[in-house]
Amino acid sequence: MAVYTEVTDDALRAFLAAYDLGALVAFRGIAEGVENSNYSLRTDTGDFILTLYEKRVDPAELPWFLGLMEHLAGRGISCPRPVAGRDGASLRGLCGRAAAITTFLPGVWPRQVRAWHCAPLGEALAALHLAGADYAPVRPNALGPAGWPKLLDRALDSAAAVEALSPGLGARLRAALARILAGWPDSLPRGHIHADLFPDNVFFLERRLSGLIDFYFAATDLLAYDLAVCLNAWCFGADFSFDVGKARALLGGYAARRPLSAAERAALPVLAQGAALRFTLTRLYDWVHTPPGALVVRKDPMDYVRRLEFHLGVGDAGAYGI
Amino acid sequence: MAVYTEVTDDALRAFLAAYDLGALVAFRGIAEGVENSNYSLRTDTGDFILTLYEKRVDPAELPWFLGLMEHLAGRGISCPRPVAGRDGASLRGLCGRAAAITTFLPGVWPRQVRAWHCAPLGEALAALHLAGADYAPVRPNALGPAGWPKLLDRALDSAAAVEALSPGLGARLRAALARILAGWPDSLPRGHIHADLFPDNVFFLERRLSGLIDFYFAATDLLAYDLAVCLNAWCFGADFSFDVGKARALLGGYAARRPLSAAERAALPVLAQGAALRFTLTRLYDWVHTPPGALVVRKDPMDYVRRLEFHLGVGDAGAYGI
Question: Are A29 and B30 in contact (CB < 8 Å)?
Fold first, then answer.
């Protein structure tokens, strides 16, 4: 469900009057996405996406996100490009929310990840990192390692709910966090990362990657951490078995465009542990804080606890196929 | 939220192979709709809607619904037209559901009903009734008056929940049902009705009605009952005040294409009471039977109790502006 704010006809008409997009042809809510309200918008000049930014997104940060997308699109990355109104602005108010129109990307996100998705994914991630190098503004990663202790504390405020999920889970997560932070590599190459490149944010057409979407978790952080997120999001089966063939394809595709340094390769296990912990913590927080009856699908934190346990057992990057 | 069944890439590819629609370009879940899973589907030959029929729809009835849509589209009604595969069939299996592709209709459904929507709505409803006259198959209306006593009984199984909603509500609904059934007009003109023509099922482009969708409550029943559904769905304000201007426009638009008989006009109050009761009952049933925590928006039954109370107080069709 991804329409939290209903856009009235009059409000839409007034909003579109600020653009040179021609007459409205169709306007439908999009089911995908969980953070913002997204509509597919067709006018007689083409197809677009209208996004209303909901409460998780800080409006003050939107210029950074939209600026990054504009920058990346200008350097050939296939990502949504903000569409400016006649006043030159791509961000304006609609129904009490900040809102923007972006270009429509063709493609379909893979409901089932196959090994052949992973090399193009790695290549696209490397291309994104390289294209972002000269985007000057910086956004610290609030969901990076500096934010994890507080996230864990807030989840463990509901100690009984966490214990109910898995006995001893709180203590195991505290131990994992301490170990990960102690081994965290701070001197690896940094840049702008997507930070949430799950399958539903990557479009394919035939066997070609056709676009990357949803940059609203993007931040400035370790580039190899983005790969670690993808190792978690793309390389495990439904039974939580790790698919080393997918990992090899992902890392190989990446390295073909941006070779990993020896330090980055060596850090992959702890980066993958950190990425698994990050998604465990946000899911755990949502799990224990979502009231029963809320209209939100709570994602099972244990899916990422299992990934975390896998990565904690990894000796070196050889386990990822390189 | 209207994606209950996720369609995997492989399943979609195999499904589309049965059609001559060209290569897949985009595939996105549609947020609107509550009964079935709907996807917007683009191929290099055009835009379509893919619907997977979920549990409320009896697969045995789908040929009737799709046949009606095909029939109406063939007679110039702007409604989704089933797209046949190479084998001539427009209904086949996908991910364990019956599924069909229909044509895409341009337009936007009105989030705020204005008086100017109502005359075109009435005209389109009359055109639908006239165009359906020579569609021979019949579908009894399971949600018509014959079904209301059982629906009320099943809702009142949870007497405490109904009482909690409004003290005395159960008794008031029993009395209303008895009065409505006693006055129900059985000899009015019959035909195929849409039976669920709410604003989210009617598209407009500029100020023109561009299409009618979602025929999965359609049935064979009193034609004027369809108007009574629209009186309820389109002619009340957010404060439940009745807008006689909208009603006059609706009924006038309808009568311009299909004049109402004196008996139909006289029956409007009881038909409107019945329509209000029908939506009260299904909402009430869902209200008392939806477990807390279910991922479904429960619509407040009291919205229709208030409409019912208005119509119970109406003396004659003059209250509707005619």
Answer: yes
